[in-house]
């Protein structure tokens, strides 16, 4: 019943936010026409924009899970999520208006994006605050049964018991641990484990069962899952094993045959398709906008030593596909031949070769590397579909041959121009940490994460922190 109410509230919240977005566009168009400069927008163009707002905002609000009334969330997290959602939505609306309308000015779309961000975040902050207060007074709560032992993460149990605005009411703790009983017996009933969970659930109001034992028992967990799923009670499990095994599973069909598919990368095909579209469109506009910069860099490289402008190197892409990665040449022409003489100067661990003050780097090249401008030609690789704007950096084949098997998983996502490593110190990060950062990116990938990394990259370029 509570689940049903929460789903209904999520739908209502989503619809209200879409309606607020429509209202924001109407207000901006009205205010611009009456108080800034009159703009004649054809009626059919206005209707197209309204339809795009409904489709895009409804889809992405659901995609970012911004309709659901989450119980555990910080305001900074909410702001980041709304910023990412409005940024992507407004970008898609702008692109749609370019192709589908003739009379919608960019000014209106820009003002709409700013107002929409302010209104939606304010609405969510207000509703989130109201629900926190309601839960803090004991309403809209979920009854929870915790299964624990003396090796459980007790800080979690403390927070479940004493942070009331989370909206959880610990009905009981099931444990034979003496420390658990001594610590919590005065706050909540502590049940011995000889009680049957089936009987407890049947005789009492239990919305969720949370298993957080330090000693994980497979047979016990399997029995608890069956007991909960049989009557529709939510079951949650914590285990240190879950931080190691991140393999995701989902059900797929080949005609009528069901297959349980395991994949250690995201299978959110909608979000991946949005990423692919944004990669192409954004790269196209970037190449057009910075073409004078590209020309200036090319001239500077040519003037310095008369050598080739671009450095083309074979790199390893998605699932081992080979492609020619483009960069502005930052080293002398015979850099690869000189590498053999410099092997003993390598400052990077693992199979990667890097020297902080590489003697092969030219004067122009040193500036390009510091500002990361040497990476700009890779937008052409993005346009060809070989790379993405954000993703693990593409390795060279000789490095991949030296990978440990688990490190090859970084090839399961399309390589990118920038990544977590790129904005975290580059040469100052050891190889194993670099690999760990790439795995973290793959395991936690989202459009929001891509946007945050892209903005961080802009900061690195502007401050000259690239190394």
UniProtKB/TrEMBL annotation:
Compartment(s) where it occurs, according to its Swiss-Prot or TrEMBL record: Membrane
Segments passing through the bilayer: 12-29, 41-61, 82-100, 106-126, 277-301
Pfam families for the chain: Bac_transf (PF02397), CoA_binding_3 (PF13727)
UniProt source species: Marinifilum flexuosum
Molecular function terms from GO: phosphotransferase activity, for other substituted phosphate groups
PANTHER family: COLANIC BIOSYNTHESIS UDP-GLUCOSE LIPID CARRIER TRANSFERASE, SLL5057 PROTEIN
GO cellular component: membrane
The protein, known as: Exopolysaccharide biosynthesis polyprenyl glycosylphosphotransferase
The Bacterial sugar transferase domain, residue ranges: 275-462
UniProt keywords, alphabetically: Membrane, Transferase, Transmembrane, Transmembrane helix
Family statement drawn from the similarity comment of this UniProt entry: Belongs to the bacterial sugar transferase family.
Chief location bin: membrane
Biological classification of the source: Bacteria, Pseudomonadati, Bacteroidota, Bacteroidia, Marinilabiliales
Annotated membrane topology: Multi-pass membrane protein
Residues spanning the signal sequence: none
NCBIfam families per the UniProt record, alphabetical: EPS_sugtrans (TIGR03025)
InterPro entries: Bact_transf, EPS_sugar_tfrase
